[in-house]
Description:
single chain; 300 residues; alpha/beta; five-stranded mixed beta sheet
Amino acid sequence: MNKFESMQAFTQVVEAGGFAAAAREMGLSRSAVNKLVMNLEATLKVQLLQRTTRKVTPTATGLAFYERCVAILADVAEAEVAVSNLQTKPQGQLRINAPMTFGNRYLSPLLAQFLQQYPDLHVELSLSDRFIDPIDEGFDVTLRIASPPTMSSLIVQVLAPASVILCAAPSYLRDREPPQVPSDLAHHACLAYGHLATDNQWTLCGPDGEHKVNVQGPLCANNGEVLQTAAIQGLGITLLPRFIVQSDLEAGRLQHLMVDYAAPEISICVLYPVNRHLSTKVQLLVEFLNQRLGEKAPAN
């Protein structure tokens, strides 16, 4: 028995109010539709329809099953539309929001490749390090580097991990004892990410568990590249995603400190509103980023 076809026949009979009308809608004979429903009842071992000479109505069990069938058939139809749409040529505007440093260094070249593949798309890219509400501000896709958020109005997909490490310039460390444990940071100049220059707290995880330490320093900024530049110039110790400072570590401009300790791991995430999950252009971009960042994620 084709259970899917039997479910379609059953729902059609309920909606049409009879076998003859359902048969006309489905382009089948009345006996074929009747057989599909009878087979479904036999398989489920329940009576779904109350049949009289005048009308056909669902039983209480049949009505409950009908509601489930409608939802299942709608999901299948929706999935078919989504797959079909992915084969069509995407066009129109795609509004994207991303963090400043990640957008400049990694996303912009990827978007250039994406637009070469889909030249009928127009991307509007907004770079900002503040946390935005994608729905309120009308973005189709938002990228964040953080712990994956849980929001019922957004679909969240993790693209790649991103480790966050402590580092400082050799010039800063020249006349100072490098920190060995998190508590040592309280005695160093620290360059913190945020909006307030005081009362900043860093969380570090190591072999002896999790530590929270209050840090102070000459600079606090809400942009990673600003902190990176300040650290290179010897202003203090900073805590940044490895992908921002990897080239500086390799060139010796910065040194990785307290290698057994790191901030709780964060991820490169893509977020998009639930109502965009069938959008061809959104699905194509998410799949493109997942492939590119999955194959060659920024240094972590």
